[in-house]
Amino acid sequence: MTVATTTRSLDGDMTVDEFKEDKEWLRRQGISYADGDGDGYIIDDGEVDGLVEYSQKSLGLRIVAY
């Protein structure tokens, strides 16, 4: 018995690779996560910290100060 596997989402909209490459979606998610006052902009230190946190947790980035 052969079992077919796929990387499509359950509803078939996009593949896992397509999802990972959707930069616009990732950008909006990061802004939404970090935007403490909901104005659509990342402007204060707390919001920048939130964006760094999102990037490290969700995107697997390592961000260091230099």
Poorly predicted runs of 5 or more residues: none
Tell me the helix content.
40-55%
Q: What's the tally of helices?
A: 3
Report strand %.
under 5%
Q: Gyration radius, to the nearest Å? A: 16 Å
Question: What is the average of the pLDDT values?
Answer: 75
How does the helix and strand content classify structurally?
mainly alpha
For the sheet with most strands, the description reads: none
Shape: flat
Number of strands: 0
Q: How do the strands and helices of this protein lay out in sequence?
A:
Blueprint: H1 16-20, H2 23-34, H3 45-58
Helix pairs in contact: 2-3
Q: Your description of this structure?
A:
The chain has 66 residues and is mostly helical. It has a domain at 16-58. It is 47% helix and 0% strand. The chain is built from 3 helices and no strands. The protein has helices at 16-20, 23-34, 45-58. α2 (23-34) packs across α3. The protein is flat, with a radius of gyration of 16 Å.
Summarize this, please?
This protein is mainly α. Helix content is 47%, strand content 0%.
Descriptors for this entry?
66 residues; mainly alpha; 3 helices
